Amino acid sequence: AASATADMIRQVVLALVACHAAAFTMTARRSLSMATVPAHNTAKSAEIFAEAKTLMPGGVSSPVRAFKSVGGEPIVFDSVSGSKATDVDGNTYIDYVGTWGPAIVGHAHPEVLDYIKETMAKGTSFGAPCALENVLAKMVIDAVPSVEMVRFTNSGTEACMGMLRLVRAYTGRDAILKFEGNYHGHADAFLSKAGSGVATLGLPDSPGVPKAATATTLTAPYNDLESVENLLRENEVAAVVLEPVVGNAGFIPPTEEFVKGLRELTTKYGALLVFDEVMTGFRIAYGGAQEHFGVTPDVTTMGKVIGGGLPVGAYGGRRDIMEMVAPAGPMYQAGTLSGNPLAMAAGIKTMEILKRDGSYEHLDRVTKKLVSGVLAAAEEFGHEMCGGSISGMFGFFFCKGPVRNFEEAKQSDTEKFARWHRAMLERGVYLAPSQFEAGFTSLAHTDEDIEKTIAAAREVLAEL
């Protein structure tokens, strides 16, 4: 009995020692990480932003930039190069926003800049046909399976506005079906259960949008074919419009059944299928999501990458549909700066670089390394976190997951995300300032960038 009592005492003592050792290790680890974080001085950014708020609504030209959902104030950029961004206070960050997607070959790529300079010597804008439009148009048509003709615009929003009018003109139907949390620009008809800044700021459907503007906008949960078929059966729908991989409610991929089922259902009910590839186009594959998933829509909207960092959007599709667009057909859409030579030049050179051997293999490898490293750190330190990637597009949610639609995305711990974002920023990692935005890598991101990011993530997740 005495021996058993002694063994029991010994086990209790060993357990207490182990517990104290673990606590000491965690404390030491946290103390070390806190001690090694350099001071993050953003005084100049704060000064500039304070003035900006007196000049522009919220101090920004686009809402998500204001950091309202993550707290604190935004940093003000001074310059970008490769995978890095430098603010006005001289802090340098590994950038995973990439101007919200366009910087796929890296910021300020020397070949892109050189071609812009060469083109700029001939003038900055023509307002007339430009030979470079033909060059970029042929590149887009060759790359994107659904596109037989293309119309250039100045932004993704503008491209989606033109697309909306086109699908209604072609089908003679008014209703469109979109998905909760998907974002297709700020046109009235699309600001119904929208993603991006609308989701980030927690806004209801925007004031100033007449009820009549969204009366013909139907919404369904993403990755839910049954709800789509019910709506198609009960309504004369012109088009089903979606982000083929959601990036504006966080990173949410479709199931194979969903994306292929949409093609079958739209064909069955006489609706057009539209892929909004403003974000995924030329990013998750050279031919976009439609190449990646092997599903060809009728119409595609594009932007971001095809402008190489300058303002460009486009919509394209089957020839018989696109010939409805003026001046070939009666559906009117126009733009003073559409087909701008500088934007065409930047897009051409960016796409040339992307076509080189190994580009998409590099994007896939570094992005998977980043995601797996961060998720492993989250698991080690006991955080519920899920995430994923396709090529150079990725995202994380602070919840168990998987996340399949916007309702599930909203279960994420946004307060924890805000603390994560701020702590990563202080360690030189610039992430999208919203739980409801995807992240992006580029050809300029190196293994060293990824390893530094994972190391920073480990420090932060140890403290959260």
Keywords:
single chain; 464 residues; alpha/beta; 7-stranded mixed sheet; 4-stranded mixed sheet; 16 helices; globular
User: Helices and strands, in N-to-C order?
Assistant: HHEEEHHEHEHHEHEHEHEEHHHEEHHEEH
Query: Helicity, in percent?
Result: 40-55%
Q: What spatial order of strands do you see in the largest sheet?
A: 4-10-9-8-7-5-6
Number of strands: 14
Q: Span between N and C termini?
A: 46 Å
Average pLDDT number: 91
Q: Poorly predicted ranges (pLDDT <50, ≥5 residues)?
A: 16-35, 200-204
Note the main sheet.
7 strands, mixed
Range of strand content: 5-15%
Write a compact overview of the structure shown.
The protein contains 16 helices and 14 strands.
Explain what the structure shows.
Helices cover 43% and strands 13% of the residues. The strands form 3 sheets. Strands 4-10-9-8-7-5-6 form a 7-stranded mixed beta sheet, sandwiched between helices. It contains 16 helices and 14 strands. It starts with a helix and ends with a helix. The protein is an alpha/beta fold. The radius of gyration is 24 Å and the shape is globular. α9 (256-269) links the parallel β7 (237-242) and β8. The chain has helices at residues 2-36, 43-55, 110-120, 131-143, 156-171, 197-200, 211-214, 225-234, 256-269, 288-293, 319-322, 341-354, 359-380, 406-409, 414-426, 447-463, and strands at residues 77-81, 84-87, 92-95, 149-153, 175-179, 217-220, 237-242, 272-276, 299-303, 313-317, 386-390, 393-397, 429-430, 439-440. α1 (2-36) packs across α16 (447-463), α3 (110-120) packs antiparallel against α12 (341-354) and α4 (131-143) runs parallel beside α12 (341-354).
